[in-house]
């Protein structure tokens, strides 16, 4: 009698409906991770912004911070690149790109570096300046002050004329915007102590223009600085938004300043761009 062993086949386990649902969810999670995470690992970090927009009037330091953020780089990376990248700047700039980081929207891709981005900004500035017929570093410096001081584009030409008129008469510019640049701040209020700081950007103490632009001006400010309208204005103050008063009469200017001060919350607050 032969020994016959019978193999009993056990039924294969089957996933329950809940088990199938869990499996589908897990597969979906894995697909999402593969699509989102893996490409970032190959790019060496988080996904970059697709573009970087620089508004008119931003200082170079602000542009550097925005570039670092858009490129997902450590703080200070673009500022360092600005000191080491050869840029097409006028000799007067002495390698400082302030005023030549043209306000515009710049595309960013995986090959964009701080050096390439800064180079594109400066090249754009040079192209625009050529379009506007501006070849003078002095004009860019004036435009940067106009950009910071004017309450609205319609006032930019008059602000530029005030600057030209004061320079022609040998008067100090006495612009709060240049003090703000020296103090790395933005405020409407300037104290008497502020006007005494030791800085070449203190246009209360030093006659003439500051040594560099104080921001990166846009097209309106550049065109205003290049061709300001005729006028004898020597003073101006923005009494309230949309109401900038220009005059050649100092007593009238003081009256406008008093009106501005009366409208401020603090009795000691003052803003007199030119006094």
UniProtKB/TrEMBL annotation:
Which EC class is this protein assigned? lyase
- Which membrane topology describes this protein? Single-pass membrane protein
- Write the Enzyme Commission number(s) for this entry: 4.2.2.29
Please indicate which superkingdom the organism of origin belongs to: Bacteria
The record lists the catalysed reaction(s) as:
a peptidoglycan chain = a peptidoglycan chain with N-acetyl-1,6-anhydromuramyl-[peptide] at the reducing end + a peptidoglycan chain with N-acetylglucosamine at the non-reducing end
Q: Which InterPro entries does the entry mention?
A: MLTG-like
- TM ranges are 21-42
Localization of this protein: Cell membrane
Site label Important for catalytic activity, positions: 149
Which keywords belong to this entry?
Cell membrane, Cell wall biogenesis/degradation, Lyase, Membrane, Transmembrane, Transmembrane helix
Q: Could you tell me which CDD domains the record lists for this protein?
A: MltG_like
PANTHER family per record: ENDOLYTIC MUREIN TRANSGLYCOSYLASE
Which HAMAP family does the annotation name? Answer: MltG
State the family it belongs to. Answer: Belongs to the transglycosylase MltG family.
Protein role:
Functions as a peptidoglycan terminase that cleaves nascent peptidoglycan strands endolytically to terminate their elongation.
- The protein depicted here goes by the name Endolytic murein transglycosylase
- Organism for this UniProt entry: Streptomyces celluloflavus
Organismal lineage: Bacteria, Bacillati, Actinomycetota, Actinomycetes, Kitasatosporales
* Gene name of the encoded protein: mltG
